[in-house]
Write a structure and sequence with these properties.
five-stranded mixed β-sheet, single chain, about 575 residues, globular, mainly alpha
Length: about 575
């Protein structure tokens, strides 16, 4: 019988590592000069001085909190005794991979890295340009102490800033951290999959991720999404390991969890919902457990580390945080981007665009996905919750907040989705292969999954090239439009006027558009992301639709980000 045990509460002599770490953090917090650091940050920042002062104080307090947590964790560490796990591991994922399988997984990572580095410098899209102009050329301190916009993926802004400082302000340097994090997430997919699925399924999922259109696209997108995916996979693997363990092994796993989860939060704030999901699963499992044991507490310490480190990472921008993050998207404007049905349609269209076979493959994939979910449900409902609950909580919070429902907010679940699809393929073959084919189920499933990998690789040529082709649009207009007769508005300002330095006019209203037309009998207007203009300036958009002819459309791989050139020519007055 397993003996109930509890957390050791009596004071004991602190270990040298915990004591040194706590003292170092405490001294750092005490020695940091508030006014001097705030003044240094203000040299290359547009943030109010009072908020910078507040941010430095927040950082000092967060650093002190880390020091106290070091001491508390050392005193309250679980005793290393056998205890019933909160979750039984089950059969899947228990067998270690062979040398050949490890080599194949490593090969997927190297192939994936090459695919992500190829054509890395193609045209940037709007959000990348915003990151480049705001944080790429600023100081590193300014990059992590400014949160004027939700477009600041804090950790990614810092990594991109350092990459540009080393390699120069080129598009490939801005995207390099995303590509490297994307390649690292392939290995993380393999390691996570080994915990929850048979080795063959883990290998197929890794290769499918390596040649995935969408994963390559995001790995060449200078944003924090591949870092968020990596953090989700690593933290989820550590969370499961803590649930499964029978004999706690100190604070190694909780610390791994805390570091991975906080890195995800630093990359993108939606990573908080991954931790929340894990916390809810832990609470339910703990409430159902009949025996108390020290294996209850490692996940709790993981949450403590994740929370403290996340606060520490955001401390400098906390005074700006709520003003920026809590504001609903595009307040006062009607837009389909907050409609769940729009998100569903856009997600399905985006998936179809990157899948071999398009919509037909998507319909077939729905059946496979359902079978995969059913299989994981039979394996472990708690495990299925680990795969699905973070995305469900993310969707619920975004809906409640009135935020735009961008499909990219759910990219962190890509590894889980591929595992479910691969499981569905194997389940489908298992159900269909009867009679003489029953003995060949494993080989048939492997063949079907391998064909899917090859078909996915065939879609990769479409992923390369500009995400939004601002440069081609600017060159086209330069060659054809009369001098001084070109204007842009809304989302065209940043890429064309600020980034490409085009000598065009900027239009901010319908009246300004009509004034521009009076001065230019042949008026050229260049639009970026027309759907945004239609939402924020509906009257201007209506005039552009009725009074202007469409001259040229420049498409890119960023869905909805097409660039439209429109021209209005007054009838000739010659008789």
């Amino acid at each position: 019988m397993v003996k109930p045990i509890s957390v050791e509460l009596r004071l004991r002599r602190p270990r040298a590592g915990a004591l040194i770490g706590a003292l170092a953090l405490g001294l750092l917090a005490a020695a940091t000069p508030v006014d001097a650091l705030a003044a240094l940050l203000a040299e290359d920042s547009r943030v109010e001085h009072a908020k910078l002062i507040g941010g430095v104080w927040m950082w000092k307090l967060a650093t002190l909190l880390l020091a106290l947590i070091c001491l508390a964790a050392d005193q309250l560490r679980p005793a290393a005794r056998d205890a019933a796990p909160l979750l039984e591991r089950g059969e899947s994922g228990e067998e270690p991979p062979s040398v050949r399988q490890r080599a194949l997984a490593l090969g997927a990572c190297f192939v994936g890295l090459g695919l992500r580095l190829f054509d890395l410098g193609a045209g940037l899209w709007f959000d990348e340009i915003d990151t480049l102009l705001r944080y790429g050329s600023a100081s590193a301190l300014a990059a992590i102490s400014s949160f004027e916009t939700q477009n600041n993926h804090l950790a990614y802004s810092l990594l991109a800033n350092r990459s540009i400082a080393i390699f120069g302000a080129d598009a490939w340097a801005l995207r390099l951290p995303a590509a490297l994090l994307g390649a690292a997430s392939l290995w993380a997919t393999w390691k996570f999959a080994l915990r929850v699925a048979p080795r063959t399924q883990a290998l197929i999922a890794t290769w499918l991720m390596a040649v995935s259109y969408h994963h390559v696209w995001f790995s060449q997108n200078a944003r924090g999404y591949t870092g968020l995916l990596l953090a989700t996979l690593v933290s989820s693997a550590a969370f499961l390991a803590m649930l499964w363990q029978r004999k706690p092994q100190g604070l190694r796993l909780p610390l791994v969890y805390g570091l991975a989860a906080s890195f995800g939060v630093w990359m993108h704030t939606t990573a908080v919902f991954v931790v929340v999901a894990h916390g809810l699963i832990w609470l339910v499992l703990g409430a159902r457990a009949r025996e108390t044991g020290s294996n209850r507490w490692p996940p709790l310490w993981g949450f403590v580390f994740a929370t403290a480190l996340s606060i520490w990472g955001y401390a400098l921008v906390l005074p700006q945080f709520l003003d920026t993050l809590a504001v609903p998207s595009m307040v006062g404007h009607e837009t389909p981007w907050r409609n769940p049905l729009w998100m569903l349609r856009e997600t399905l269209a985006g998936l179809a665009a990157g899948l071999p076979g398009g919509w037909l493959a998507l319909v077939e994939g729905g059946l496979v996905l359902a079978l995969g979910l059913w299989s994981f449900w039979r394996q472990s409902r708690a495990l299925l919750a680990v795969l699905l609950l973070p995305a469900a909580i993310t969707a619920a919070v975004l809906l409640a907040q009135g935020h735009n429902l961008w499909p990219r907010f759910f990219f962190f679940s890509a590894g889980f989705a591929l595992l479910i699809v691969v499981r569905g393929i194997f389940t489908f073959v298992e159900l269909m292969a009867r009679g003489p084919l029953a003995s060949l189920r494993g080989w048939l499933a492997l063949a079907a999954a391998s064909l899917l990998v090859l078909a996915s690789a065939a879609t990769l040529p479409r992923v390369y090239g500009p995400k939004q082709d601002f440069a081609a649009a600017a060159e086209y207009v330069r060659r054809r439009a009369p001098a001084g007769a070109v204007a842009t508005l809304e989302m065209g300002k940043l890429p064309f006027l600020d980034y490409l330095r085009q000598p065009w006019a900027q239009i901010g209203s319908l009246q300004e558009l009509m004034d521009f037309e009076r001065d230019h009998p042949e008026a050229w207007v260049v639009l970026a992301t027309p759907a945004y203009l239609a939402a924020v300036q509906p009257q201007t958009w209506a005039r552009l639709q009725t009074e202007y002819a469409e001259e040229k459309v420049f498409a890119g791989s960023a869905r909805g980000g097409e660039i439209v050139v429109k021209v209005r020519r007054e009838p000739s007055r010659d008789h």
